[in-house]
Write a structure and sequence with these properties.
alpha/beta, eight-stranded antiparallel beta sheet, 37% helix, binds 2-deoxy-2-amino glucitol-6-phosphate, 24 strands, 20 helices
């Protein structure tokens, strides 16, 4: 995934574009580049390998200025992360310049055709081919930039979000979308293009998202939107209510830590207005899935990636226990390749923080082709997934910038809990007394998360003992198994320590062989008193703790406050407040997020922008 920005107006464009790229660096940081055009219609490019600060240094050493331009921060797909391959890319004439987020799947055949016509290429990228193709149409058919772009996108196969300028048509930026997001910011005598909202928020709250197969033609005075066939489109304008500070670090050392601390609010905002504490009744946002549809579905399929897949696994327990509907959970990247058996009375739930994950979009489209209704749980209104799903439960976690997902994960589980409660109610599986209790448990969660955050220092102390280890094992049983997986993923993706999440009950079938005095084993063993299933699970997992202890393993146990059994066997105890069993993961994951954060900081890792990763994977 990459980040694109563009500005046309009367201000100095360079600082605006650099600031915009800084707010998009979470999308990819292998290289960065900028192209600006000055009043004399002279085009200047600066590009640099690595982080944005390298581009800033290149500009400091060789300044440039202009009042319109485009910029790019890259997560390399085609072509190594070198300066040569850094965007922006130009056509043969050097007049047409393109920045691109996505993949052009047929770029090689297009490149061969252009080479046959005498074009020479400087880079290995697919994006350079697009610039050449636009330039080819402009020069050989005497087309305007807009016309040349239309002819070009008609020949592209793949996904692409692009900004395009040409020195032949000053003060004009063309933005194009087929897949990854493009947000247009509507200023006063100025317009912005960006891959996401944060770069625009500092200038205007009035935006619209380009739709799929749409393009916007921006000048200082106007913005015009059409589809690829030149039919005029009236975009749906939105006013973003985010506080711009929300999209900044707010005094925290890293976005990830800020977002861990935003979880009480993310949970509160996701619950807000969706459940009555008096009756326990849940209200979903209006959608194209009726109550009758929900009553008649035969099964639920869940498809997601990474952390969102872990939320889906937790959601399985919630939906099966509260609504008594069978649930299957798939990695979205596997879903359509297993040729799933789908019927019209199956409901697909897709879970995605960004709403732009290519694998998850593909899974959604697979299910829609089979006639299934699709419900999205997503954090970005207007993203591709929310636009194509039949219904959406938005997680109101606010912008999540850190590559490692934290507040979106807990908000996703809250959304799944609300959905499970709703489904149980409409299918008469839950009486009012039980619904009120479950709603009350939900209402108490934010304060319990804050209680855990107040203990962060003890987790930092714990990280001192483990930041040099090479391996970690995380264990959990039942609904604590997804927590073990998530704790392991958090650690490996930001500290680069190998960590594995495993079902506790499976240890005796092989992984027990790993246990020795050097291996830290995190075991999530919470329980809800009086809940028979929870207590049985707790006893079985306690046996795992004893087995690990008997082999001199190092046990970090996540336990419910007041635990007197597993606490005696653990080397280290992390206590969490008691809550209803199905909400336990929302609490038990918090200390694991903090543990991974503090270990990664002690290892000097780039917590917000871990190597080889990007915030949202918009390519398969
Ligand atoms: C989680 O910390 C990772 N950043 C990654 O696994 C992420 O959850 C996954 O790529 C799915 O992204 P999405 O929720 O935006 O679809």
């Amino acid at each position: 995934m990459c980040g694109i920005v563009g500005y046309v107006g009367n201000k100095q464009v360079v600082p605006l574009i650099i600031d915009g790229l800084r707010k998009l660096e979470y999308r990819g940081y292998d290289s960065a580049g900028i192209a600006v055009v000055d009043d004399a219609h002279h085009l200047e490019l600066r590009r640099a390998e690595g982080k944005l600060r390298n581009l800033e240094e290149a500009i400091r050493l060789n300044p440039l200025d202009g009042n319109y331009g485009i910029g790019h921060t890259r997560w390399a797909t085609h072509g190594r992360p070198t300066e040569e391959n850094a965007h922006p890319h130009r056509d043969q004439s050097g007049k047409v310049v393109v920045v691109h987020n996505g993949i052009i799947e047929n770029y090689l055949s297009l490149k061969e055709g252009l080479i046959a016509e005498g074009h020479e290429f400087r880079t290995e990228t697919d994006t350079e081919v697009v610039a050449h193709l636009i330039g080819h149409y402009k020069d050989t058919e005497d087309l305007t930039l807009e016309q040349a772009v239309r002819k070009t996108v008609a020949r592209l196969r793949g996904i692409f979000a692009m900004s395009i300028i040409s020195t032949d048509e000053p003060d004009t930026i063309i933005a194009v979308r087929e897949g990854p997001p493009v947000v247009i910011g509507l200023g006063d005598g100025e317009f912005f293009v960006a891959s996401d909202i944060p770069p625009i928020l500092a200038h205007t709250r009035d935006v619209f998202f380009l739709g799929d197969k749409e393009m916007a033609i921006l000048t200082k005075d106007s913005v015009r939107v059409t589809d690829f066939e030149a039919n005029v489109v009236e975009p749906e304008q939105q006013r973003i209510t985010w506080d711009p500070i929300q999209a900044e670090k707010g005094g925290f050392k890293h976005f990830m830590l800020k977002e861990i601390y935003e979880q009480p609010r993310a949970v509160r905002d996701t619950v807000q207005g969706r459940v009555s504490l008096d009756t326990g009744k849940v209200y979903l946002d209006p959608m194209d899935i009726s109550e009758q549809d929900f009553k008649s579905i035969r099964s639920v399929k869940i498809a997601a990636c990474g952390t969102s897949w872990h939320a889906g696994l937790a959601g399985k327990y919630m939906i099966e226990q509260l609504a008594r509907v069978p649930v299957d959970v798939d990695y979205a990247s596997e879903f359509r390749y297993r040729d799933p058996v789908l019927n019209e009375d199956d409901l697909l739930v897709v879970i995605s923080q960004s709403g732009e994950t290519a694998d998850t979009i593909a899974a959604m489209r697979e299910a829609k082709q089979a006639g299934c209704k699709v419900l999205a749980i997503c954090n970005v209104h207007g993203s591709m997934i929310t636009r194509e799903a039949d219904g959406t439960i938005l997680t109101h976690a606010g912008p999540e910038i850190g590559v490692a997902s934290t507040k979106a994960f807990t908000a996703q589980m809250i959304a799944l809990y609300l959905f499970a409660l709703y489904l149980g109610e409409v299918r008469d599986q839950i009486d009012e007394a039980k619904a009120k209790k479950l709603a009350q448990d939900l209402a108490e969660l934010p304060l319990k998360i804050e209680q855990l955050l107040n203990e962060a220092e003890s987790i930092d102390d714990l990280s001192k003992e483990f930041f040099r280890v090479q391996d970690f094992l995380y264990l959990g049983r039942g609904i604590n198994f997804p927590v073990a997986l998530e704790g392991a993923l958090k650690l490996k993706e930001i500290s680069y320590i190998h960590a594995e999440g495993y079902p506790a009950g499976e240890m005796k079938h092989g992984p027990n062989a790993l246990i020795d005095e050097k291996l830290p084993v995190v075991i999530v063993n919470t329980k809800e008193k009086g809940n028979e299933g929870s207590e049985l699970r707790y006893e079985k997992t306690h046996s795992n703790i004893v087995e690990v202890k008997a082999r001199d393993g190092i046990i970090i146990a996540v336990l419910t406050e007041g635990d007197t059994m597993s606490a005696t066997a653990a080397s280290h105890i992390i206590e969490i407040p008691e809550t209803s069993d199905l909400l336990g993961p929302v609490l038990s994951v918090v200390p694991l997020q903090l543990l991974s954060y503090y270990i990664a900081v002690r290892r000097g890792c780039d917590v917000d922008q871990p190597r080889n990763l990007a915030k949202s994977v918009t390519v398969e």
